[in-house]
Specification:
Low-confidence stretches of chain A: none
Number of helices of chain B: 10
Distance between the termini of chain B: 30 Å
Largest sheet of chain A: none
Number of domains of chain A: 1
Largest sheet of chain B: 6 strands, mixed
Shape of chain A: globular
Order of helices and strands of chain B: EEEHEEHHHEHEHEEHEHEEHEH
Order of helices and strands of chain A: HHHHHHHHHHH
Number of domains of chain B: 2
Number of strands of chain A: 0
Helix content of chain A: over 70%
CATH superfamily of the largest domain in chain B: P-loop containing nucleotide triphosphate hydrolases
Low-confidence stretches of chain B: none
CATH architecture of the largest domain in chain B: 3-Layer(aba) Sandwich
Oligomer: heterodimer
Strand content of chain B: 25-35%
Number of helices of chain A: 11
Mean pLDDT of chain B: 87
Number of strands of chain B: 13
Shape of chain B: globular
CATH class of the largest domain in chain B: Alpha Beta
Radius of gyration of chain B: 23 Å
Largest interface: A-B, 26 and 34 residues
Radius of gyration of chain A: 20 Å
Structural class of chain A: mainly alpha
Chain lengths: ~270, ~300
């Protein structure tokens, strides 16, 4: 397995576009996470308040909430590492190196595992980054004791699973389409337009169905955290049902990816 | 390597039809055929990139699966590398896949004359250099068998000569080499065996040196033209003779060797100062085979 990750690393380490995307991802998360506190202070300065609550006292960096907030925030930027994976797979098709890899002695299953293990590796790196970022922000800002961290740490593995499932959707699409540009556009159209429309229609016609569509299910692993600050009921844990539903879609896409790689000619 | 009953259908089109092929160990095996005769599809299947519709193949007397490909060095069609990586980085990827030691990288780069360019990105390479890098990559695992599909495609005469010499060297080290090519003169110069494919079927398989003996044509000349001509006309084993330019082109009956012609003429008192086997025989044989198949 380590050999497969190493192969991916050797392929990617001198590709500038990929490092830029990864850099953008981390910088964007860090910037928004750090900027959020400053923004709340700014709102307070402007005299904004919500039912008499002054925004700067929202404990967004509190140990109890920090990883839930960060995991939710990071999900907005998950397209960056997803693009990275899409480019890395479509590069293989453009350069026909996927064929050469097979000719050189990689099995199709190994090719599939090398892409997936790299996706898993990226998910873990992202979770590790959130852990460090949360640790720093929490140490500076948290008012409660460190013991409260136990509540929100569960969102780190939750984030990694969510990101990995999203990567699976991206890899599936690029295997089908083989061109990075078209894949990225289609992924965005589906995620931002198509699925929201279908989802709204379903909710309207069969409201008892709840969340069923793939991207909806995957993003539901980490629920919206901020509603608690305006005193609404908020799910501040990861529900087994949510994890199961998202994970099930992950399995479906893994199976589809595997099927494509086994059946199609390279 | 052994192929039996290998078939590939693309929809209604049958690209490779019940292919049977045996490549003897230590041979330099040329696969010939017009465009679309199934050469690349066959090689694609035995290298695992195309799924066969039916049939089977094995390597080294019975080995199958992807592990065995690590012991084969192969290039299919154009050289395929990561454009943004340097030659050395590309070979590192290939070596990791093949489980080949990384110290081989400099060795093979030296072998194909690219050591001084090893840090340059692949996209800056000329076609000849790309082709040589592909052969270098194929050499990483010190393979017993090499498969080279159109290795001289698109190269200039100097590039063709470089690749040819490389292949001859590789063959002389005892490696089995399978090559598909359009360039019949190249195949004739480097191959020991050849097979002709047409419409996805093997229509002929034979040895290159037997080819000359089967229906050999020679260019001959002697100073005494009239007695040479008389001797040729009298002989019983010459199927045709024709004066072309300043020489006679004679075709010998099947099974007759050049030595017999030479000693016959000596007995007649004709001393040859020129006896040259006609190098175009593979091309002629190839066209004959294809023509015969078309009319069959």
């Amino acid at each position: 397995m380590l050999r497969l990750v190493k192969i991916e690393y050797l392929k990617l380490k001198s590709n500038r576009a990929l490092w830029v995307l990864l850099g953008l991802y981390f910088v964007a998360i860090a910037a928004v996470a750090i900027g959020a506190g400053a923004f709340l202070d700014y709102l307070t300065d402007q005299g904004v308040d919500y039912r008499g609550i002054n925004p700067s006292i929202f404990p967004i960096y509190d140990w109890e909430d920090i990883y839930h907030n960060l995991a939710y925030l990071a999900s907005f930027f998950s397209v960056f590492p997803a693009f990275l994976l899409i480019i890395s797979v479509s590069n293989e098709f453009t350069y026909k190196t996927h064929r050469q890899n097979i000719i050189d002695g990689l099995s199709r299953t190994e090719f599939f595992l090398s892409k997936l293990s790299f996706a898993a590796f990226l998910s873990l790196v992202s979770a590790a980054f959130l852990f460090l970022l949360g640790l720093i922000l929490g140490l500076i800002n948290s008012e409660s004791g460190l013991t409260a961290i136990g509540n929100s740490l569960v969102f780190l593995p939750g984030h990694a699973i969510q990101l990995f499932c999203f990567f699976l959707v991206s890899i599936f699409l690029v295997l089908l389409i083989r061109r990075s540009g078209i894949t990225i556009v289609l992924l965005l159209i589906y995620a931002l337009i198509l699925e929201p429309i279908i989802s709204a229609l379903l909710k309207w016609q069969v409201p008892e169905l709840g969340i069923v569509l793939p991207l909806d299910s995957i993003s539901a692993i980490v629920r919206v955290p901020f509603s608690k600050y305006i005193l609404l009921q908020t799910q501040d844990y990861i529900a087994w049902m949510d994890l199961l539903r998202g994970g099930l879609w992950g399995l479906v896409f893994t199976a589809l990816i595997f099927l494509i790689l086994k059946k199609k000619d390279f | 390597m052994n192929i039996s009953g290998l078939t590939k259908k693309f929809g209604r089109l049958t690209a490779v039809d019940n292919m049977e092929l045996d490549v003897p160990k230590g041979s330099v095996f040329g696969i010939l055929g017009p465009n679309g005769s199934g050469k690349s599809t066959t090689l694609g299947m035995i290298l695992g990139v195309i799924n066969p519709t039916s049939g089977s193949f094995d390597w080294f007397n019975g080995e199958k699966g992807h592990q065995v490909r690590k012991r084969i060095g192969a290039i299919l069609e154009a050289p395929c590398f990561y454009h943004y990586l340097s030659a050395a980085e590309n070979l590192k990827v290939a070596a990791t896949i093949k489980d080949a030691p990384t110290h081989r990288i400099d060795e093979v780069l030296d072998r194909v004359g690219l050591l001084s360019r090893k840090e340059d990105p692949f996209r800056s390479y000329s076609l000849g250099m790309k082709q040589r890098l592909a052969i270098g990559s194929a050499l990483l695992s010190d393979p017993e068998v090499m498969i080279l599909d159109e290795p001289t495609n698109g190269l200039d005469p100097q590039g063709i000569a470089e690749i040819r010499n490389l292949i001859i060297d590789l063959a002389s080290e005892g490696r089995t080499i399978i090559t598909a090519s359009h360039m019949l003169s190249e195949v004739q110069r480097i191959c020991t065996d050849f097979a002709v494919l047409r419409l996805g079927k093997k229509v002929y398989q034979g040895k290159v040196n037997e080819l000359d003996q089967e229906k050999a044509r020679y260019e001959i000349w002697a100073d005494d033209e009239s007695s040479l001509k008389a001797a040729l006309t009298e002989s019983s084993f010459i199927s045709s003779q024709r004066k072309e330019g300043g020489v006679f082109i004679v075709t010998l009956d099947k099974g007759t060797k050049a030595a017999e012609l030479n000693s016959y003429l000596m007995n007649k008192g004709v001393v040859l100062n020129r006896l040259v086997p006609q190098a175009t025989s593979l091309e002629q044989r190839f066209l004959e085979i294809l023509n015969a198949e078309e009319h069959a």
